[in-house]
């Protein structure tokens, strides 16, 4: 039953997996670089908070919501001119990173916001009482204390990106989704489709387990004496 | 007499009206002074304005009127940067400890030093003795989740002392602890107060805390200070009804319910007069009762008695029953007055 796994097909699978991983991790990385500060700002800029700027908070919240409510496949098509501007082309793995990042950043921002809001306000008050500046409070209190939750948030973001990356396959983005569609669907090779799904499941499992383990290690709240 | 280290001058704090809630005056015309090296306890029921009061000292809240001075600096006149520097010489401990869960005991104590920009080597040299001082040298690498409530508050105290402040603010620091642990933490506060000549402002709703550590007491009610004075004087002669209520809760001057229920203001035939006698200082240890019994030739019936120590001075409250005839009562009060004891007829049963 594995005779569809010819050496050339195995090579294709490996190459597609690599492309997927490349897209996902670059998008997650850039998405985090944008989403982390954005999320921290969203979590600390309502009135009375560290960086109180309620109007900017509302405005950024609206932008984030708009980006989050656009279906990914529509986003991919809608921002093709922007993709061309950044990547020089709208087709291929490199180009696929652009819409993946655009989708990931606001998603990560919202997840980070939730993680940072979970930090006990008493800690912020204690830090203020020590004479900490708002930036010191973010660096020394909010981010370190939220780190386990942030780890889980980024894990969720990567898992979601793996799903999204399969969709960019539909518009010539390369990777596992692309392989599954072209071989499994268009060339009537359901075994390839199945193999692609199995690889995706394994990837998601690996990412989730690693994230869970890391978050548990970082969390010092459930230690036994 | 040196200037007080903390001084409130006509301080007022009004929280503006918000959707659905009218404006709230948390503090009105508060004047308060904490002398250097003293422990001043502010007691009040919840909602009396205690938390607001203590947060004004380090600028976590800003007053809507009046001025606050700490160590000669008017904190109410400082800008954000000046306030941050001033906060480094004001330590604070909290009811729920507010320790960082992902930092060990050592790292928690180091945090204020990191914030103040103290170099790493010096941080080490300063944190270790502090952990020793609070008795946690063996827990330096433990995380808060591995510590008991009392140990967490010890870390909190060490952390508050890390920047060598002259002032310590204690925000209900023992309210989340059991009685035994509370005593240990209060003893530690007393120790740091004495050893470091630290000026302490603490807020609490428990008179037991005041009794154990405070040199002076301020009673806060509805945003106003209704009574203020040395702890012992306030316990011995409480003036305001709120103060009386707080005091009677810990000095045993509240009558047992079955007695209180039968108490009448007028003497009936064969009634006993109940007299409360307050012993203070040296005479708390004298055999006053047997002397009175012999002097007046009456049977003295002890209804309730408690001898305690407040601010290091013996303090006793005894409620006695004597035959309720006017002659006996007058003679008893005269005898007590001649012994310099304050006495009060509570009623007749």
Automatic annotation (TrEMBL), chain A:
Annotated signal peptide: none
Transmembrane residue ranges: 20-43, 55-80, 149-172, 192-215
Topological category with respect to the lipid bilayer: Multi-pass membrane protein
Subcellular location: Cell membrane
Chief place where the protein resides: membrane
Keyword Membrane attached: yes
UniProt record, GO biological process: D-methionine transmembrane transport
Any Pfam family matching the protein: BPD_transp_1
GO cellular component: plasma membrane
Alphabetic keyword roster: Cell membrane, Membrane, Transmembrane, Transmembrane helix, Transport
Domain ABC transmembrane type-1: 17-211
InterPro entries with a match to the protein in the record: AA_ABC_Transporter_Permease, MetI-like, MetI-like_sf
Gene3D superfamilies, per the entry: MetI-like (1.10.3720.10)
NCBIfam families found in the cross-reference section: PRK10782.1
Protein name: D-methionine transport system permease protein
Organism field: Aquabacter spiritensis
Taxonomic lineage of the native organism: Bacteria, Pseudomonadati, Pseudomonadota, Alphaproteobacteria, Hyphomicrobiales
From TrEMBL, chain B:
PROSITE patterns per the UniProt record, alphabetical: ABC_TRANSPORTER_1, ABC_TRANSPORTER_2
Entry superkingdom: Bacteria
Domain ABC transporter: 6-247
Keywords: Amino-acid transport, ATP-binding, Cell membrane, Membrane, Nucleotide-binding, Translocase, Transport
GO CC list: plasma membrane
UniProt xrefs under Pfam families: ABC_tran, NIL
GO MF terms, alphabetically ordered: ATP binding; ATP hydrolysis activity
SMART domains reported in the protein's UniProt record: AAA, NIL
InterPro entries associated with the record: AAA+_ATPase, ABC_transporter-like_ATP-bd, ABC_transporter-like_CS, ACT-like_dom_sf, MetN_ABC, MetN_ABC_transporter-like, NIL_domain, P-loop_NTPase
GO biological process: amino acid transport
Function statement: Part of the ABC transporter FtsEX involved in cellular division. Important for assembly or stability of the septal ring.
Family recorded in the similarity comment: Belongs to the ABC transporter superfamily.
Protein name: Cell division ATP-binding protein FtsE
Originating species: Aquabacter spiritensis
């Amino acid at each position: 039953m594995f005779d569809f796994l010819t050496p050339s097909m195995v090579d294709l699978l490996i190459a597609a997996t690599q492309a997927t991983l490349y897209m996902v991790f670059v998008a997650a990385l850039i998405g985090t670089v944008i989403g982390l500060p954005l999320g921290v700002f969203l979590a600390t800029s309502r009135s009375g908070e560290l960086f109180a700027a309620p109007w900017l908070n509302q405005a950024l919240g609206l932008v984030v919501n708009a980006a989050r409510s656009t279906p990914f496949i529509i986003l991919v098509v809608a921002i093709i001119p922007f993709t061309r501007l950044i990547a020089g082309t709208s087709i291929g793995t490199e180009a696929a990173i652009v819409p993946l990042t655009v989708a990931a950043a606001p998603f990560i921002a919202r997840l980070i916001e939730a993680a940072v809001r979970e930090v006990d306000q008493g800690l912020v008050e204690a830090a203020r009482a020590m004479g900490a500046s708002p930036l010191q409070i973010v660096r020394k209190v909010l981010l370190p204390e939220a780190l386990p939750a942030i780890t889980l948030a980024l894990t969720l973001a990567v898992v979601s990106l793996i799903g999204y990356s399969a969709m960019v396959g539909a518009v010539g983005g390369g990777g596992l989704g692309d392989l599954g569609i072209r071989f499994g669907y268009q060339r009537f090779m359901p075994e390839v489709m199945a193999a692609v799904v199995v690889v995706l499941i394994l990837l998601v499992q690996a990412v989730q387990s690693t994230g869970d383990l890391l978050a548990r290690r970082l969390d010092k709240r459930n230690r036994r004496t | 007499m040196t200037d007080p280290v903390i001084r409130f001058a006509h301080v007022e704090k009004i929280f503006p009206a918000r959707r659905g809630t009218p404006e709230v005056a948390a503090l009105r015309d508060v004047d308060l002074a904490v002398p250097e090296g003293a422990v001043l306890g502010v007691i009040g029921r919840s909602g009396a304005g205690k938390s607001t009061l203590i947060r004004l000292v380090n600028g976590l809240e800003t007053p809507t009127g009046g001025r606050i001075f700490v160590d000669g600096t008017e904190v109410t006149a400082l800008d954000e940067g000046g306030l941050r520097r001033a906060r480094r010489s004001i330590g604070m401990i909290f009811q729920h400890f507010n320790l960082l869960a992902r930092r060990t005991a050592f790292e928690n104590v180091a945090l204020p030093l990191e914030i103040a920009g103290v170099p790493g080597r010096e941080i080490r040299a300063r944190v270790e003795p502090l952990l020793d001082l609070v008795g946690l040298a063996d827990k330096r690498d433990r995380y808060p989740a591995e510590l008991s409530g009392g140990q967490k508050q010890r870390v909190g105290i060490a952390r508050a002392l890390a920047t060598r402040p002259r002032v310590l603010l204690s925000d209900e620091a023992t309210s989340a602890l059991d009685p035994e642990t509370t005593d240990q933490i209060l003893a530690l506060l007393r120790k740091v107060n004495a050893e470091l000549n630290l000026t302490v402002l603490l807020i609490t709703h428990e008179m037991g805390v005041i009794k154990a550590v405070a040199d002076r007491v301020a009673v806060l009610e509805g945003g106003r200070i209704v009574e203020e004075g040395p702890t012992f004087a306030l316990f011995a002669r409480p003036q305001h009804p709120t103060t009386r209520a707080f005091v009677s809760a810990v000095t045993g001057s509240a009558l047992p319910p079955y007695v209180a229920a039968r108490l009448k203001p007028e003497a009936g035939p064969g009634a006993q007069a109940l007299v409360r006698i307050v012993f203070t200082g040296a005479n708390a240890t004298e055999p006053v009762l047997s002397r009175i019994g012999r002097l007046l030739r009456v049977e003295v019936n002890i209804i309730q008695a408690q001898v305690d120590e407040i601010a290091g001075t013996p303090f006793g409250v005894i409620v006695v029953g004597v035959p309720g005839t006017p002659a006996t009562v007058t003679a008893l009060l005269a005898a007590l007055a001649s012994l310099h004891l304050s006495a009060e007829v509570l009623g007749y049963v």
